[in-house]
Every structure is written in structure tokens, then in C-alpha cells.
Amino acid sequence: MTAEIMNEIGLDLTQNFARRLEELIDDKFDYVITLGERPFRHHNFQAAETFHWKFDNPVAASNDPEKQLRVFRMVRDQIAQRLRLFIIVHIRPQASS
Q: Is the pTM for the entire model greater than 0.90?
């Protein structure tokens, strides 16, 4: 459902795939944003500024696919709003320096 609802806003995720954390060991990050029930801590991300955003689990919302789809859309839109605010607060001030 994630690919379906992202496609609705013009983002094609069909060529994307999840990567295991072990694959990111040598990557450097300025920011790490975790989603889910509880914050994720990993030693590789200690240098990064870490944020945890908790959202409802769309799959747990209902067994009805239409209701799940509505919750997926709601969570997608909540994440988009949080990202817009994140950029205004954390990214734009650095860009203007």
C-alpha cells in the first residue's frame, strides 16, 4: 500500500527497496529520522542528529483494506507535513549561512 499511496502524489517507489542497517555502516548522516513505536538507536548514527517521529501503524488500523488505505494516506500526509516543518527549522537556516 505504501507504493500505491506514494504513487498518488507522483512518487514512484516500484524501483526502490529496503536496505538493512548493516549496509549503511560506512555511510555518514547529518540527520536520522526514525518512525515507529519506539526510537531506534544505533552506534553508527551517534554523530547524526537523531529525531523520532511516532505515527500510527497503518496496517494495525484495520483488517479492511479500504480503511488501511485511508490510514496510509493520513500517515503519508502527516509525514509530509513534519518534513516541511523539519526543512524550515533545520535545513533552511543552514542554507542561508
A: no
